[in-house]
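Bit of a strange request maybe. I'm writing a small parser for structure token strings and I need a real example to test against, not something I typed by hand. Could someone generate the tokens for this chain?
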Amino acid sequence: MNDASTTPRDVRMRGFARRTTVADALVRLDRELYQLPAETATIIDAADRVLASHVQSQIDVPGFDRAMMDGFALQASNTLGASPYNRLVLTIVGQVLPGSTFRGPVVDGQAVRIMTGAPMPRGADAVLPVENVQVEGDRLFALDEVSPGKHVGRRGEDIRSEATVLEAGRRLRPQDLGVLSSIGIAEVPVVRQPRVRIAVTGNELLPPGTRPEGVRIADANSPMLASLVVRDGGRPINPGIVPDDPAALRTALHTDVDVILVSGGSSVGQEDLVPILLAEYGELLVHGLAMRPSSPAGFGRIGPRLVFLLPGNPVSCFCAYDFFAGRAIRALSGRSKDWPYRQTKLPLRRKLVSTIGRVDYARVQIVDKYVEPLAISGASILSSTTLADGFVVVEQDSEGSAPGELVDVYLYD
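Reply from user aminoacidic:
Good idea to test on real output. This should exercise your parser:
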């Protein structure tokens, strides 16, 4: 193979002559998306994973009638008319604790001391709370009355056998895992997490967290991308910075994963080799977008692998990931394709200016319940995203919004 920078099939300018709209790019991307197959995970490892099929209980929960308060199990009829001024006496014939049972039935005139969660003795139909009794030796004086079933949890009142407990497509929350454990399920089918190769390119880059020196800068994109991938249900794989070298880039593009995120090398400069390699070894579906920032972004595929071209400038990288790569990772992992951001509608404090013909991603702050625009340009100013409370999307047919106009804000937190 010839050096990619001199290969005659230079596709880099093709997408920049007439940039693809964001709407058309999303339609093209959605044609490529699917849900990954299921795998089995233990309930310890299944938190925040997406359930691949319905879960049905094979048992009742609870599996027995149980006390819901500390007190005395008895026949409710033995307390009829009881009050502090009309104490009714019963005989205490034993006790029952959680995890144990009381041998024999409770008959008329008898009571059994019982703790919360313990199984109800045969013959008892209510629990008289401990604060409503007086005890003298083996004699119990009832100071209040209870009705049948009072303070008793019935078998199956939580979950019935053969009931569908959780449905496919649900992101498993901590309480869901508790329910699964309560019905005796140790493993569940979940959608496989997409494996996502992060390939940050650039000979000028130092490893993440390294102090910048001279004309070299620290890689800010790979830790940001790894965190975003985890948020969206993927498993990030990041072996390190990839040199601006055709062989190294070619190797990264052929990693055995589900998604490849290439940050840098996606534009039209001399060192921007990735679009050429993607077109040569696979299919460059979109390159060059009518949006700001992130106009050099694009995507395609090599075999079954989706490949996303993310700009090297940090804000552009963040924006392109959120619009396209994150959408794909969420779909593959069984999640909603929509942004995982809370949305609110608030008035603008000052004018938000845009240009017709492109989508703008405007970082904003919320100040006294007003939206304060921070930036649309400044693709390399990553701190603008940390100062921002969220962002506003200005659609391509809009010149912006006037002061006081309500706008939809997507909140980072």
